[in-house]
Each structure stands twice: as structure tokens, then as C-alpha cells.
Amino acid sequence: MGDLLAGKVALITGGGRGIGREIARVFAREGACVAAADVNLEAATDTIGQLPTEGLALSMDVADIASVQAGVDAIVARFGRLDILVNNAGITRDNLLIRMDESEWDAVININLKGVFNCCKVASRPMMKARRGRIVSISSVVGVQGNAGQVNYSASKAGVLGITKTLARELASRAITVNAVAPGFIETDMTAKLSPEARQAMLSQVPLARPGVPEDVANAVLFLASDQAAYVTGQVIQVNGGMAM
Ligand code: NAP
Q1: Domains of the chain, CATH where assigned
Q2: Catalytic annotation on 231?
Q3: Helices (H) and strands (E) in the chain, counts
Q4: Cβ–Cβ under 8 Å, residues 88 and 13
Q5: Atom number of ligand 1 nearest to Cα 44
Q6: Could you tell me if the CB of 60 is within 6 A of ligand 1?
Q7: What are the residues facing 57 on neighbouring strands?
Q8: In a mutational test of the pocket of ligand 1, which residue from 188, 194, 238 has the highest number of ligand atoms less than 8 Å from its CB?
Q9: For residue range 107-123, what is the model confidence (pLDDT) as tens digits?
């Protein structure tokens, strides 16, 4: 156990599996009380059950602001504060532009982009009152350099970088920092869907010649969420094995 986040309360969206679950594990190891929020409550409950610190599992759809508000209210009622928001929930609905239908565009934008707006809007209130806070959003290498077949996803993840830089400016006077982590190719259920050819094509672009693991991302999020990053805001840390520089 460390104490980088001792006494802090963190909300992690999409905390039921993958990178979100690993962030929950690393935060709890560093002393944080974690609220894991997911559309899949059973998965969020599993995450919390594995942690050494007190936690809260929440059923939350980040695309629905009423659901986000109910979750943040539950956190404040239980712990009396909210110090850290990690916008991690995300989906893919890949297709080439000419084949992509409106529902694939809307689903990804609603969860990956509007979801970040909703969570920042709701979670920043208790942070502004407390005059302290940390917001860390998970973007993607695809939001930085694009990727054929992911026009919806790349737009959403580039949008997350825009939200990050704007809110860093808006919230700085209240000592709330806002940063992003842009992972490359990380081994999770999301990337397990890729064909062997797509996987090989991704890996061939990685100078460190291996896929990342969720802990690689969680360690960067931990730094940005901690007091050690008090003078870092509006930044993007790329965790991609050198895939984009
Ligand atoms: P994952 O394994 O698919 O996990 C995503 C989690 O988000 C799931 O638990 C999912 O719930 C949840 N979720 C989906 N829609 C939601 C909603 N509307 N509200 C709340 N929770 C929702 O994905 P991951 O690989 O860990 O990715 C985590 C984040 O990193 C995402 O934002 C992703 O875009 C980003 N990222 C991943 C990679 C990578 O290589 N894996 C690279 C760059 C960026 P269900 O269980 O119901 O689906």
C-alpha cells in the first residue's frame, strides 16, 4: 500500500472492467476510496469487492446526465466529498465512413464525448465548492493521429482533448486540474475484438514492440490524480510505447 491518494475520494466511470478496473485497483492501493460506476452494476460491484479500501459500486450511464447526477449525489452522501473524476467509460462502433450509419456515430459520441461533458459538469460542482480537484479523462492515440475505420471514435477522443484544454482554463482558479491520458494499444476486452491482422498492424507501429497493459495507463492516471501533479493542467500524457510522438 502507498499513500499517494490517502483520504481522497475518486469516481471512475467504466470501472467494471479493463482499464477502469485497473485504475480502481491502483487508486485503492494508494489509499483512495473508490466509486466504480458502470452500466453493468454487477461488474462495478466485482471491482469494488476486490479493493482493500472502502468503496462504492454505482450503476451509471455516462450518456444520461440524470444518472450521472444521481451517482455523484450518492458519492457525496456517502463520503462527504469528491476529489477525483476519471472519465474512462468508452465504446467503439468501428466502420468505414461510407458504411457507418448514424446510430454508430451517435452511440460513440454520446458515451465517449457527451459522457465526458456530463461527468465534468456534475462532478466539478463539489470540487469547485471545495476549491480543489482532479479531472483525468482517457482519450486515445486515435484522437491524436486518427485511424481508418474509426471516424466516430477518433472524433470523440479528439473532442475529449478539447474539453480537457478548455476546462483546464475554466477551472484553474479553483485549483482543479484537468488533464488527459491518451493510451495506444492496450490489452483489454476492447482490443480483444481486433482481428489478428489488425492487431499485428497496430503492434508493428509500436517502437517498444509490445502491447500496453492496463497498469501502464493506470500509473499515468495516478500521477495526474495525485498531489505530485499539482502544477500540471491542460496536458495530455501519451501512454503508447512510442506509437505516436
Ligand atoms: P472496456 O474493456 O470495453 O471497458 C469499458 C467499460 O466502460 C466497460 O465496463 C463498459 O461497460 C463501460 N461502459 C460502456 N458504456 C458505458 C456508459 N454509457 N456508462 C458507463 N460505463 C460504460 O474498455 P477499455 O479498453 O478498458 O477502455 C477504457 C477506456 O480507455 C475507454 O475510454 C477507451 O476508449 C480508452 N482506450 C482504450 C484503449 C485500448 O487499447 N484498450 C486505447 C485507447 C483508449 P460494459 O461492461 O457494459 O460494456
Answers
A1: 9-235 (3.40.50.720)
A2: no
A3: 10, 7
A4: yes
A5: 9
A6: yes
A7: 36
A8: 188
A9: 999 999 999 999 999 99
